[in-house]
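Q: Could you fold this chain for me?
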Amino acid sequence: MLTKQQNKLFNFLKEKIKKTNVSPSFEEMKNAMGLKSKSGIQRLIDGLVERGFIEKKDNKKRAINIIEKKPLKNNRDLINIPILGSIAAGSPIEAIENTDDVIQVPKNLVTENKKNYILKVAGDSMLNKGIVDGDKAIIEYCNDANNGDIVVALINDNEVTLKKLKKDKNKIHLIPENDNYQTQSFNPEEVKIQGKLKGIIRSY
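A: Sure. Below is the predicted structure, expressed as structure tokens.
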């Protein structure tokens, strides 16, 4: 479920926090990963947060905590979630349709008693959040979301896309996490929220 770089950083964080009881600085992470910029480290951290491996407290330095994951004991720790099709992390694609396909995921990746579904990611507009083409996005159904949430947005009842949400008084903005893409802005009646991102599954 992690890229090689994400896994390398995660292992470094675990060892550093275990030894010192303090999360490393950006400079230490840069040196350990052989990266030149803080933005590269930030993308890796965002990916680990999205996948539920670490948590980071906003506005605090060295505030990274490792989330301990309990091993799955048996199938009772898994839940079947339907795969509804593909979603664009790029330009919007045609609206998804229901299918009978399902995938088993750990129960700790979803909120109990909530409706969930999975969409296959197509495109790279959310790359800076660690979401890449071919990923499977675990979506919790909802018809509203907060600014900053990564949402499934249905545009004009026809196209669906995965983007970061920003709302103001007059517009809904769907924001990519890749400098190669532009923010799209719509009138509120043109956009329906279909769910928000809960996690990512990646196959190798």
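A (continued): The first helix runs from residue 4 to 20.
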